[in-house]
């Protein structure tokens, strides 16, 4: 069994005109939502006896910061947090390649990335329709497979789809 958590980065700042996209940090809402949603996920996983073994994040500042907040809430060790260029503004094929490259010693992994690719990838993998992943949302999918290379579109089960507005109003 493999469990894949897809996270769209928390809300980012547009306050600095001319700043490179990859350098944009989290804004105040993102700084609130990332640790909060990390805690929401930690609570959900504790109730199920699940965990996150590995976090792969886009190297964009906002995504990496989101990943660190989630890692802190989930007690994922720093050695199990990796940046992957292939996640930055990736399409579903590129994200599938990242999944195929995951180490099979991990039964669960998280990808932290960007829209529209993250929503399109979640929609591709989920048997339940997903049309939009808001910032800092989490899609959890369970696959009845032994290796990450066996993860296929529509072959998983949607465990949950959580977003900040469901908890913060």
Describe this entry's structure for a reader.
The chain has 169 residues and is α/β, with parallel strands linked by helices. It has one domain (2-140, 152-168): Rossmann fold (3-Layer(aba) Sandwich), CATH 3.40.50. 34% of the residues lie in helices and 19% in strands. It is built from 5 helices and 6 strands. The chain has helices spanning 28-48, 61-74, 92-100, 117-125, 165-168, and strands spanning 2-8, 54-57, 81-83, 108-113, 138-143, 157-162. Helix 1 runs parallel beside helix 2 (61-74) and helix 3 (92-100) crosses helix 4. The chain is globular. 41% of the residues are buried.
In short:
The chain has 169 residues and is of the alpha/beta class.
Number of helices: 5
Determine and state the CATH class: Alpha Beta
Order of helices and strands: EHEHEHEHEEH
Query: What is the straight-line distance between the termini?
Result: 34 Å
Amount of helix: 25-40%
What are the defining features of this structure?
6-stranded mixed sheet, Rossmann fold, alpha/beta, 169 residues, 6 strands, 5 helices
List the helices and strands and how they pair.
Blueprint: E1 2-8, H1 28-48, E2 54-57, H2 61-74, E3 81-83, H3 92-100, E4 108-113, H4 117-125, E5 138-143, E6 157-162, H5 165-168
Parallel strand pairs: 1-4, 2-3, 2-4
Antiparallel strand pairs: 1-5, 5-6
């Amino acid at each position: 069994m493999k469990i894949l958590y897809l996270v769209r980065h928390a809300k980012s700042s547009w306050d600095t005109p001319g700043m490179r996209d990859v350098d944009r940090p989290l804004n105040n809402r993102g700084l609130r939502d990332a640790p909060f949603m990390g805690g929401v996920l930690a609570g959900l996983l504790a109730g199920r006896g699940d965990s996150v073994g590995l976090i792969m994040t886009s190297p964009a500042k906002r995504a990496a910061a989101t990943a660190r907040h989630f890692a802190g809430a989930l007690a994922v060790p720093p050695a199990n947090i990796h940046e992957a260029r292939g996640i930055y503004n990736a399409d579903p094929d590129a994200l599938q390649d990242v999944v195929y490259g995951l180490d099979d010693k991990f039964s669960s992994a998280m990808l932290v990335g960007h829209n529209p690719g993250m929503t399109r990838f979640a929609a591709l993998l989920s048997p339940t329709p997903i049309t939009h992943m808001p910032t800092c949302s989490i899609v959890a999918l369970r696959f009845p497979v032994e290796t990450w290379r066996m993860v296929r579109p529509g072959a998983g089960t949607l465990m949950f789809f959580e977003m900040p507005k469901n908890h913060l109003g």
